[in-house]
Design brief:
3-stranded antiparallel beta sheet, 289 residues, 3 strands
Length: 289
């Protein structure tokens, strides 16, 4: 069964791994070239465009690779009726389903996880010209363990929707509809609260700090209302005259890897939940005719 699953999915697997390998080679070159550049302006001139395009590519890649590996996995077989052959063999439908999931999904998810780790290493010399630090969107999403976890969710969503919708294209469309809001909600609503923010009234924050909340307080630390629109002088002078300071809550850069572990764990858990739905659909929704 493993050999059959490999033969059916090898084109998607090899194409996905080829894309990952090409990006890995590019990242390796960038790391060694960028670390030899000491002038920050020259670094920005050379790699500013690269950073922008890489963000776009790596934001889209998990859902694209996950979809193209997962959606045809069962959707195409059901469309063509070839799933009947697998379900009528002595191996049983659970083994048929699980083997296809592992053979098609494991290489792609592993490759994307390694690519995310490589990008975290490759981006070290570029941090001086990367706006906002490593914790902000979209920089956080394209580095570390999260890249593989996003791919796992996209793959399991598309494979499961292929079983439920019995159609490859429908599975792809539904996957995008489910995946994009999940990424947005986690990044904007959950990630800022992975750890208690550090509060500060200083104008100088640590390098790479991610500001997640902001307010105005008086000398005693009590929240106050302040509007720059009512100032006749500069904002700084106006705030000083009213005894108001800006207080921010921020996540420091050193929490990057702990946040990566938390977010990767969250998305792996979601992927596992989707796999459970797929197992239910296999036994309750999939018919031979």
């Amino acid at each position: 069964m493993t050999w059959v699953a490999w033969r059916q999915q090898r084109l998607q697997i090899l194409l996905s791994l080829g894309i990952v390998a090409g990006l890995a080679a590019l990242m390796t070159f960038v790391r060694f070239d960028a670390q030899s550049i000491t002038d920050e302006q020259l670094l920005d001139d050379r790699y500013g465009t690269y950073i922008n395009y890489l963000r776009l590519v790596l934001l889209a890649l998990p859902v694209l690779l996950g979809m193209f590996a997962g959606a045809p996995l069962f959707g195409r077989e059901i469309e063509h009726g070839t799933h009947v052959f697998g379900l009528t063999q002595s191996i049983g439908r659970t083994r048929w389903w699980a083997t296809k999931i592992v053979v098609a999904g494991l290489p792609v998810v592993t490759g994307m996880t390694l690519l995310g780790l490589l990008n975290a290493w490759s981006s070290v010399p570029l941090q001086a010209v990367m706006f906002g630090g490593r914790l902000v969107t979209p920089t956080f999403e394209i580095q570390g363990l999260a890249l593989g976890a996003y791919t796992a969710l996209a793959f399991t969503l598309s494979a499961t929707f292929g079983l439920l919708a019995r159609n490859t294209l429908a599975a792809m469309v539904i996957t995008v509809i489910a995946y994009v809001p999940a990424i947005a909600v986690v990044g904007n609503a959950l990630r800022p609260a992975y750890a208690t923010p550090i509060t500060s009234t200083s104008d100088e924050l640590p390098a790479g700090a991610w500001i997640v909340e902001s307010s105005y307080v008086d000398a005693a630390g009590n929240p106050v209302s302040f509007s720059p629109a009512g100032c006749d002088t500069t904002i700084t002078e106006c705030m000083r005259a009213q005894g108001v300071v800006r207080e921010v809550g921020f996540q420091p850069d050193e929490r990057f890897w702990s946040f990566q572990v938390i977010e990767a764990g969250l998305f792996v858990a979601l992927a596992a939940l989707v796999v459970g739905v797929g197992a239910w659909a296999l036994h309750n929704r999939l018919r031979l005719a």
